[in-house]
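ENTRY TYPE: paired fold submission
RECORD: A
CONTENT: sequence, then structure tokens
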Amino acid sequence: MSARDDILARLGRPEGDPDAEYRLLHRGYLERHHADGIVELFAERVAHYRAIVHRVDEAALPGAIAAALRPGAYVVPEGVPDSWVSSIEPSRLVGPDADLTRVAGTLTGCAVGIAETGTIVLDHTAGQGRRALTLVPDHHLVVVRADQVAADVPEAVARLVITRPLTFISGPSATSDIELSRVEGVHGPRTLEVFVV
């Protein structure tokens, strides 16, 4: 049997359930590197990527979101809890079908946060909207609940549905040229604000 045949045999047949087959894969590696303080580690790592991090409780969240807004309208996808936007003037909120080049930013939830890497993962279900909502506007506000923070990548992936479209965000959009000059906002939001609840 070739290595290719061996790998394909372990993955199963394409007509099977990819999520079930993924969960059955043998993983001979350490799956969790951190046991304690993962929310604090997540906030530290996200801030390391030049994101603005707010540690708030549920009661303070609406006011903190409202205070972070810049002039202009913000896209709020379907499924965002009403309580998150309760301190914002309704005329400043637009639906997900708005012209994304004419809004100041967007507010979303997420599927999971990864403490080890400071990464936020969106699976574009309720409260997260389509992918363009988090790539076109210049300011992305994202709410991450403490129970959504996974310690490491393997734990995060285990929480996700791997057949959904996934967007991994590690700080604001940035790139460096050959002389290592950092430029932000080239292919996504120039500013990422994370509210850890």
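RECORD: B
CONTENT: sequence, then structure tokens
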Amino acid sequence: MDEDHIGRRIAHLRKLRHLTQRGLADRAHISLGYVRAIEQGTRSASQSTLGTIARALSASVGDLLGQPYLVELQQDQLDGLIHPIREALDVYDLGADSAIEPRPLADLAAAGEEVCRSIRATDLRAAATELPALIEELTTTAHLTETARAWAALATAYRSAHDVATKLGFHDLASVALDRMAWAAERASNPALAGLRQYLRSLTYLRAGQYRTGRRLAELGQKTVLQADPGSERDAVQGQLHLGASVLAARDRDEASAAGHIEEARILARATGEVPRIHWMSFGPTNVDVHHASILIEQDRYARALDVARGIRVPEDWAASRAAHHRAEIARALLWTGRADQAFTQLLQARQLAPQQTRYSPMVRQTVAELVATRRAAPDSLANYAQWLGVR
């Protein structure tokens, strides 16, 4: 197990809060034995349990996961790309910058689409390198022209900043980017972008284990997006909100609501077909099936989840980021059903599809740590994978 594993971080924070293991168990409403096993690294903490423990310790889930993974970010020279994004987000309300000569709006919008494409291809370096100047140019353009198109392009750039920050583990910066996205979407008078922002915000609460709030945000997003003109854009955002709500409901142990949201998303997906590039959400029948498998995993119905996964045929042009995340989830289900070799195969495929995203995925790190812990002597391939991740 990683020398700096989740259990040790929990124990460290617990002691800082002057709590015994019994005190933490009582606050988190889990058993004392479970707390001990998690701290010792002999049992895995589910995502919902991590959220519960984080709230009990007045900490974030990112604190428990050890994010951001600064050593690996420094090795990949990605850490130096974050501060320029932070600075670009901070000048949102200063008006046009006279020192900036922005490109034509059509060129800026095209550059924004290319950043979105890079993120879905998990070329986070390219996206993070391009974003600061793009945001600054769009900020000046939006203030100078005050057109809906300019504000919408700026909102999309803010969304890309959120995506990069989330994938690299800078969740505070991701929250700032979402606030900026709301500010720009309001000026664009764009209900679809506003609804998308609520979807992304609900995922923030999903990661934090605050499922009730996340579900409320998804519901608000549904009301917001219904103000958009009828069409594929509205249907895709509405469907994605249903998918997010399904995972939130599954984590909240509300199986009926989770199944209901999946069915609503499926109905919308039949109408839209595969529309992966509408706001780059990868919405369509494939994403509905992937989320169906995901909520079954959340409900500990691993065999059924694997049955659903076997029937999924991922389109060739599907986003590598989404496909890799699905592989990582299936790896968890395979591990928990005793198929360690197959689980590792899925992780290898995830790395091949999206190396940067996989390297910074807490789910992948936890799965690899558990694979190593279950073997007295890890094979060289697994040991090399763990070393690549930074799991010692």
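NOTES ON RECORD B: The chain is about 70% helix and 0% strand. The first helix runs from residue 6 to 16.
STATUS: closed
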